[in-house]
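wait is this the right file?? whatever heres the structure
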């Protein structure tokens, strides 16, 4: 088996490439992907029949170049628009839901949005009956403020 791999070094580089890609799944920062790119180039060099030490040098150089040139672009593409993207409870603002427990002027009720129930108050103290559709206009901690959907 070892003789077969030594005679077909492209297979060794292919195995290294897939191991790097599998490891990348657990990290997600595109660092290990750069080593997989270097291994892919080494597969091509290996098929050209150059000595093993040259393959290792090509793998190392291509991996470093990938870290320097490709990784920043991949990270930038992954995080594009991340500054203005809302997440968690802030993403609820503007969403439409249904009142599942009536909202009174002096007593909060509950609104269901995307399968989750949120404690809700009516905007300007308005009363909203159960079953009505509402839009979330703001939130304060875990309590949302809603208004009727027009």
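ok assuming it is, sequence goes like this
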């Amino acid at each position: 088996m070892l003789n077969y791999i030594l005679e077909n070094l492209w297979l060794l580089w292919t195995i290294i490439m897939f191991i790097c890609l599998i490891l990348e799944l657990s990290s997600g920062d595109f660092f290990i992907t750069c080593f997989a790119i270097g291994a892919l180039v080494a597969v091509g060099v290996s098929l050209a029949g150059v000595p093993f030490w040259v393959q290792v040098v090509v793998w190392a150089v291509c991996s470093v170049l990938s870290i320097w040139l490709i990784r920043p672009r991949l990270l930038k593409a992954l995080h594009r628009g991340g500054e203005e993207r809302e997440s968690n409870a802030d993403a609820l603002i503007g969403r439409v839901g249904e009142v599942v427990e009536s909202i009174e002027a002096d007593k909060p009720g509950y609104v269901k949005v995307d399968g989750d129930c949120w404690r809700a108050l009516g905007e300007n103290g308005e009363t909203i009956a159960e079953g009505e559709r509402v839009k979330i206009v703001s939130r304060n901690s875990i309590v949302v403020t809603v208004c009727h959907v027009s």
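The mean pLDDT is 88. so i think its the right one actually
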